[in-house]
Amino acid sequence: MNLTSVRPHLTTLAVAAALAISLTACASSDNTTKEVTVVGTGEVRGAPDILSAGIGVEVVAPDVSGAVSQANEKARAMIDAMIAAGAAAEDIQTSDLSVQPQYDGSGGPFSGATVTGYRATNSVRIVVRDLGKASAVLDAGIAAGGDAARLNTVAFDIDDDSALLADARTRAFEDAQNRAEQYADLSGTSLSNVITITEAPGTTGDQTMRAPGGAMLDMAIAPGTQQVSFEVTVTWALE
Question: What is the Cα–Cα distance from 203 to 165, expressed in whole angstroms?
């Protein structure tokens, strides 16, 4: 075999192969879709317009029927008082009813302890849609329940936050677009069409107050404002 005649042939093949690889890489680079994906957030604040509270009574009596009867009587008086103070009957809903035996000392039903009485609870969930009446409604309910009254939680909320969410959504998209435009400038490209938009559920900041059981008359409440936030992930094509 003549090595001199083979070498030029091999050289030609190597050059051809290198050229083919180069052209493939160029074609691949030209066909690559350039994208930028960013997350935008939007936040707005709004004034709560409703108050919700868990309120009820807790009584202890020597027998079951007595405990249940007293709890129902006090709960009815509490509900009537709150309606008279401005709450709507349809906005008051029973949330908890229970009767539990009480034992002497620290014993339980499996330790031979003696039952000393029964504890009955009757609680409702109330929504007050006129915040100007909220304090008077809670005061009236607690006064009617007396020492058996129990106030568990008080929370402010926005009844219809759709307009606030729409505003937060707009701000989130604008934030994403501003970020994407900055990345495009930094990379020497420009934004083209939107490829995908993915949104996260909007959230409303919770304003909850917890109050101890027992009578709490002349309560001062302040609704303040709540934050509504929205998050969106957007992918743009770059050109």
Answer: 8
Number of other residues whose CB lies within 10 A of the CB of residue 7: 10
**3 state SS of 155:** strand
Q: Which tokens hold the place of 20?
A: 């083919």
Predicted TM-score (pTM) above 0.70: no
Distance from C-alpha of 41 to C-alpha of 175, rounded to nearest angstrom: 6
What pLDDT, in 10s, does the model give residues 11-32?
A: 333 333 332 323 233 334 455 7
Give the separation between CA 11 and CA 21, rounded to whole angstroms.
15
Distance (Å, rounded) from C-alpha 6 to C-alpha 22? 25
The angle at the Cα of 61, spanning 211 to 74, to the nearest 5 degrees, equals 50
Reduced to 3 states (helix: H, G, I; strand: E, B; else coil), residue 190 is coil
Contact 176, 210 (CB under 8 A): no
